[in-house]
Amino acid sequence: MLDIVVRNGQVVTPEGVGAWDIGIQGERIAAVAVAGTLPGDAAEVIDARGLIVVPGGIDPHTHLAHAIMSHPEEPGITLGPEDDTRGMAYGGTTTHLDFCYVRPGTEIPQAIEQRAARWKGNSYVDYAFHVTLSGALDLRIFEQIPEAIQQGFPSFKVFTTNILPSHPKRQGNRLDFGRIGFAMEKVAPQGGLMVVHGEDEDLVQFNYERFRAEGRTDGTNLHLVHTKLSELLAFRRTVALARALGTAVYFVHTSAKEGVETIAEARAQGLPVYGETLHQYCCFNAEYYKTPRGFCSHTYPSLKFPEDQAALWDGLVRNGLSTLATDEYPTSLELKLKGRKIDDVTGGNVGAEARLGIAYSEGVVKRGMALQRFADITATNAARIFGLYPKKGVIAPGSDADLVFLDPSVRKTLAREDFHVTDYSPWEGWQVTGWPVTTMLRGRLIVDRGKLLGAPSDGRLLSRKIDPVMLRRPAC
Q: Which of 31, 174, 189, 434 has the fewest C-beta atoms lying within 10 Å of its C-beta?
């Protein structure tokens, strides 16, 4: 006897989209069957008539309970998982990947242990961590990489630049290319993946210096500091290094046409290179900085130009980019708008709750994105790239019963009361068609028609192992 049968929905599976029934036993999907063929004696039947049923969303890029770097004289921390993952649950994200930072004086096992302790019992959804290698790390730290991969942490983040100018009270994140290459040497043979924030350090820091000298410090110039050329140089240098060392690379928050083209070129050559972008890059450009709340949609790298938006959408709707993420960095509106200069605007925003709804409205409805492609960029590809597939990211027998029920009939202008994390959303005033209404995590409803049914103790730490195919060629 099945615990739950989901009937009458338009279900998105790897085999296609159709009126399948979904049978759930315990925490997992037991069957995906032709409508009406599953036993009728399930303990519970969910009628999904008129709804689209997609895999629970996976956000591969979040920064919760993270040190805020934009105001070093007044240090702060972003909202934690107990706050932000509530919004994820409402918005249909059932798994997210955050970061544990390893800086000089810190060991990799210590960083993982501390981060896991902070999350335990405090997340409404499941979670995992990338390991971020930051600063002039002692070379012995890199010897800890194989053990971390064996323990289920196979992705390693690096910054090719410090996103802000140096300050005595601000820790830098940049890893020099010598150490990036050394990390690749340790990661590749063990089945790991490099996650790269790609901007050129020399160009970015020179632009800060030059713009200060010229008196052009207003934050509306951010896109002239974090430039398209900077992304191009860093992406190409990283690809060259990865090719030489046989390492798979995942570029976070691709923001420029040049980044999309570099990724496409590498993939055409058979290299295991993957690209992520963010929904704010797709929906806003640098002109938005000039509006009263324009910095609400800023992150690092900066917003760019309409031609870049077009390239990003093309990569998402058709091919070239693999995932849609958020760079989630939740703060109050006051803090988000506190900085007004090129060197003090706070990056990131609260975008996770809106991610699936915006992707559906802007991608599927407005641009003709196929529903299977929608599932790919919001869930399946992240699961495959980061070693969660097929446990996560897919509606298939044996997978976790993580489901999102999306109502395509919803038509509304988003307002503050549509969100559940902090006192603002960059998506206030945005017109949408279609919105998530029900979220299931491992066979249990955690949000249903506006009611929060889950708890912060629901989320679990996930161990990951990447399929070797993903590391040999561009497999999604």
A: 189
The whole-angstrom separation of Cα 475 and Cα 198 is 22
- Mean residue pLDDT across the chain: 97
Torsion of CA 68, 102, 378, 268, to 10 degrees: 120
Tens digits of residue pLDDT in 58-74:
999 999 999 999 999 99
DSSP conformational letter for 291:
S
Q: What is the CATH number of the domain that holds 417?
A: 2.30.40.10
Residues 6+ apart with CB under 8 A from 268: none
What φ, ψ does residue 78 adopt, rounded to 5°?
Answer: -65, 165
Give residues with Cβ within 8 angstroms of 74, minimum separation 6. none
Rg over alpha carbons for the chain, rounded to the nearest Å, is 21
In angstroms, the first-to-last Cα distance of the chain is: 36
Domain that holds residue 38: 4-55+398-452
Whether 472 maps to a domain, the answer reads no
Under the banding of pLDDT at 50, 70 and 90, the label for residue 75 is confident
Separation between Cα atoms, residue 187 and residue 248, nearest integer Å: 9
Task: State mean pLDDT over 6-15.
Answer: 96
Whose tokens are 């945005």? That residue is 430
Residue 110: give its domain's CATH number.
3.20.20.140
From the centroid of its chain, how far is CA 440?
A: 19
Q: How many domains does the chain have?
A: 2
Nearest Cα residue to 286 out of 265, 307, 266 = 307
Question: For residue range 405-419, what is the model confidence (pLDDT) as tens digits?
Answer: 999 999 999 999 999
Nearest in space to 454 (alpha carbons), one of 436, 442, 470: 442
Chain segment 87-97, per-residue pLDDT in tens: 999 999 999 99
- Cβ distance 427 to 412 under 8 Å? no
- Res. 49: pLDDT tops 90: yes
Q: Are 66 and 74 in contact (CB under 8 A)?
A: no
For 117, 213, 228, 278, 303, the CA distances from 300, given in Å and listed in that order, are 28, 22, 12, 11, 8
CB 441 within 8 A of CB 433: no
Q: If pLDDT is split at 50, 70 and 90, which confidence band does 39 have?
A: confident
Residues 50 and 161 in one domain: no
